Amino acid sequence: MTGPPATAAARPSVLAVFAHPDDESLACGGLLAWCHALGIRTSLLCLTHGEHGGQPGTQSLATTRANELRAAAAALGIDDVALLSHEDGMLPWIDAALLERDILDAVARTAADVVITFDEDGLYWHPDHVAVHERTTAAVLSAPEPRPTLYYVTIPNGAMRAVLDESRTRALTQHAPSPPPTHILGIANPDAFGAHAPAPTLVLDTGDFARQKLMALHCHRSQLGTRDALPLMTSDTAPALLAIEQYRRAAVGAATDTFLERLAGRADRHRAPESPPSRD
Ligand SMILES: [Zn+2]
Asked: Is 0.85 surpassed by the pTM of this model?
């Protein structure tokens, strides 16, 4: 078997590693959509089907969430999705070496220059998220040279409170007002998101790509209960409420700046640029 074509190998490559369908959209949907528009290869490794979270419909929740993830990935332009079947809710107790091997396989398969995963706060201290942070850190540490650069992502503290407040206002001003929303993706406390996250080293304004982020979030319907704020959000408010994403360079992995640092200075987040950035 021959390797990938030279043109594909020359493309920068970013791999996102998360625990459940919907993590990718909420944490870094704007960046993934932006990377796709820039011609950067975007890949996702999702370690569980999230089969224990949400309301089952006529089919199993695992199947529903796999379909939702496929739709969200299409909305974001993710090139490659690997959805594994580790048990939802059990990631801290699954053999660490097994998870690290899965992550290393994905790093090798996608030739990732950049890996993104949860910061140590796990967005809101979700045990599966914290485990993925730890396993991905260990995997990158043990990756063969040249190692990818590892970034941790969290939610800007206060961002989900702003989403909830805006959706509550919208609910009150509707002709047939719906009950005011109380949750964000099933989480009852919007202030929990990013509450104790370490300070970021990179803050990205993903601009209009936040509209695709919202589209992707809306794909995860099984996670959006009747009191959830996200279904009330519309595309016009997405750039103001969802565009800012926070990243932190890990101590492990390559130490050089990547295309992510250069995104911070780009003013083209409101349109798709002509050519991809270089690999490093
Ligand atoms: Zn999750």
From this structure: yes
User: Cα of 6 to ligand 1 centre, how many Å?
Assistant: 35
7 Cβ contact partners less than 8 Å away, ≥ 6 residues apart: none
CA of 68 to the centre of ligand 1 (A): 14
Smallest CA-to-CA distance from 151 within 256, 239, 81, 79 is with 256
Please write the tens of the pLDDT for every residue from 234-247.
999 999 999 999 99
**Could you give the domains of the chain?**
11-263 (3.40.50.10320)
- Cα(228) to centroid(ligand 1), Å: 16
Nearest to 270 by CA among 37, 24, 43, 75: 37
Q: Residues 198-232: pLDDT tens digits?
A: 999 999 999 999 999 999 999 999 999 889 999 99
Other CB atoms closer than 10 Å to residue 2's CB: what's the count?
A: 4
